[in-house]
UniProtKB/TrEMBL annotation:
This is ABC transporter ATP-binding protein. SMART domains: AAA. The keyword Nucleotide-binding applies. Belongs to the ABC transporter superfamily. Residues 8-258 form the ABC transporter domain. Its main location: membrane. It is found in: Cell membrane. It holds the Pfam family ABC_tran. PROSITE patterns: ABC_TRANSPORTER_2 (PS50893). GO terms for molecular function: ATP binding. It is a peripheral membrane protein.
Length: 337
């Protein structure tokens, strides 16, 4: 991979988990492009398949899960779904930096952060380990931490918020140009969250990265993402430029998510939680629209026919009610399940 922001093309991706009821899809027929140099946010409630989709970028879905169909083409690496063993290990860390959702718990409790940093550097053939430590201290310093002290610490000596920032440092320190951040700010207070998101944006711009941010918090994507993809029941239901999607959401689920945000100004009672709950693997409908049970625009066709993804300029929406808009053109959504 060159030293430039890579483009990523996810096409018809389906990921299944083995359950007592057979293999069920957590991600189904997802098609998404990450433009080089962009920050894309994926938002959706718990269980919508965000983490499973993010893990697929590293071909890191673990049993009982497996990628059952589709491809993930990353510039310079090819289709990572086909990568195995050493090739795959090298790609992770060096080309793809990743902060796991449970970043607070992903450190080794027996080793200092500095020792883990050196292990990471050695396992990726970094010659200049001093330079690596310098870089780590610099990144930690920018995130408001005393770098030398953090590198000398064990996991138990750090707060949840500090571990989260260590996770972000480890994802960035090898200079990967594709960075995946899964819930990067969940353990943080509002001020620290804003600070971390500012740093994510700065480092993204300085280094020329392609960044994917996974979150249940629409405020986080509003803060950082150029483009926003909304996920529900393993499907992408709406995508587009963040401002356009937030300013004029089209899919009823996106509208529901936005209406559920309490505003700082105005009546707190105006925030309306979306009624009902998202489906689990066992309750996701096998045919028809995955959102219909909670949808105020439900029509008969929604019970039987999966809505196609329809493009209107840069906006993509999968909804029968919205599909009737006259200026739309249909794009094929591949199903590999
Ligand atoms: N190891 C597993 N075995 C079985 N089912 C799983 C496994 N991991 C995830 N799932 C199921 O797959 C679906 C998608 O989970 P995933 O963690 O990708 O969603 P998410 O949107 O990231 O949610 P969260 O933010 O809560 O992690 C959920 O229904 C979840 O229960």
């Amino acid at each position: 991979m060159s030293n430039q922001a890579p483009g990523v093309r996810i096409d018809g991706l389906t990921v299944v988990y083995k359950t007592p009821a057979g293999e069920l899809p957590a991600v189904r027929g997802v098609t998404l492009t990450l433009e080089p140099g962009s920050i894309t946010g994926i938002v959706g409630e718990s269980g919508s398949g965000k983490s499973t989709l993010a893990l697929s970028l590293l071909n890191a879905v673990q049993p009982p899960g497996r990628i059952a169909g589709g491809s993930v083409e990353i510039d310079g690496l090819g289709d990572v779904v086909g990568l195995r063993g050493e090739e795959l290990r090298k790609a992770r860390g060096k080309h793809i930096g990743y902060v796991f959702q449970a970043a607070q718990n992903s450190l080794n409790p027996l080793k200092t952060v500095g020792k883990q940093l050196l292990d990471l550097g050695r396992s990726h053939g970094v010659d200049d380990l001093r330079g690596l430590v310098r870089e780590a201290k610099e990144l930690l310093g920018r995130m408001g931490l005393d770098g030398a002290r953090v590198l000398d610490s064990h996991q138990h000596e750090l707060s949840g918020g500090m571990r989260q920032r260590v996770g972000i440092m480890l994802a960035l320190v090898l200079n990967a140009h594709l960075v995946v951040l899964d819930e990067p700010t969940t353990a943080l207070d509002m001020i620290t969250q804003a600070n971390i998101l500012r740093i994510v944006r700065e480092v993204h711009a300085e280094r020329g990265l392609t960044t994917l941010v996974i979150t249940h918090d629409i405020g986080v994507v509003a803060e950082v993402a150029d483009r926003l993809a909304v996920m529900y029941g393993g499907r992408l239901v709406e995508q587009g430029p963040t401002r356009e999607v937030l300013g004029a959401p089209r899919h009823p689920y996106t509208r529901g998510l936005i209406q559920a945000i309490p505003r700082l100004t105005g009546d707190i009672g105006e925030a309306r939680a979306l009624p009902g709950r998202p489906p689990t693997l066992a309750t996701v409908p096998k045919q028809g629209c995955v959102f219909r049970e909670r949808c105020e625009l439900r029509m008969d066709v929604c019970d039987t026919v999966d809505p196609e993804t329809v493009a209107d300029g840069p906006r993509l929406v999968a909804c029968h009610a919205v599909n009737s808009a006259p200026a739309s053109t249909t794009v094929a959504t591949k199903e590999h399940a």
